[in-house]
What we know:
There is one protein chain. The chain has about 350 residues and is α/β, with parallel strands linked by helices. About 50% of the residues lie in helices and about 20% in strands. The protein is built from 13 helices and 12 strands. Helix 9 links the parallel strand 9 and strand 10. Helix 2 packs parallel to helix 10 (about 280-295) and helix 3 runs parallel beside helix 4 (about 105-120). The longest helix has 26 residues, at about 5-30. The two termini are about 45 Å apart.
Amino acid sequence: MSITRRFLGKAALGFAGAALLMQGTAMAADKPAPFDKPGVKIALVRYLSTGDFFQAYLSGVEAQAKALGVDLRVLDSRQDAALQADMVDQAIALGVQGIIIQHGLTESMKDAAQRAVDAGIKVVAFDVNVENPKIPQIEQSDRDLARLALEQAVTDNGDSWKAGYVYVAGIAPLDRRNETWVDVKKKHAGIDEVAMFGTLDNPIANSVANQARSVLSAHPDIKVMFAPYDEFAKGVKIAVDEAGMNKAIKIYSADISTSDISAMREPDSAWAATAATNPAVVGQVSVRALAQLLAGEDPGHNVIVPPTLITQKELIDKDIKNMEDLSAKLPQFAHADVAMPAWMPNPNAK
């Protein structure tokens, strides 16, 4: 038998194909059950979805689910607490193996989460306390988010100023941030909270702006606005700009998005600093923690994603114009090595 060049080419292609097949098989085998086979279904049950943060969070959930090869179902209650609880039951009926509960109210989600656990479904909760020791809590380290922003406020303004504060009670991340605000006021007795306001009515930024207009009219001596959610900060900024008070007031917030970056970079913007985690990374961590549970591993009860302080000056000095720039120029923002066992695929890997 004569060996021709064409035969050698075909043989090389065959060996290459076999090698790729073996590599793919090995990669699949490297994943623990149930991820070693296709067909894993999970659900994301959302309470809040309005705003850039939640869009980016969803993109992170989708990216990590795709990297794991799981079938993701997204159920969005649009701030309807009763509907969100019903959607947990819908997810159970769909036959999912895991559920991510994203935000919500403890009183409406506690029993719904327990029903999922009773059905043998693994559950994690992001920024909602379902009061269940079997359900890991995904957190942005909300107390650190508030601490970083408020430390910057004290650095910029000293420890004696009149403050406006945007807050809605009953939302777990806002309640945790509020705890830090209370502690900071105790530590710095010169901080005088002259107004508290806030709403989650859609559109959130415009609704908060309506409230902030009245607050600024009643308290024109406010020097600092603490708005520890970026939709709150957007609303405050609208009112501050309309009142022509952008040089007299500084806004400190939590969370970040491309539109937030643009607003902070505006000439003479009142928005001085924010503390944030990458919402896409938080979404990825939520899926990874759930995947660990499904694989029989323990991600820990409190899965905490560390935040980064981002100042207006830093955005301008480093010419950061969007989230992509932020991840590139602040590497600690691009990826969190949290809930990341060796077998877990990284959707950010180049």
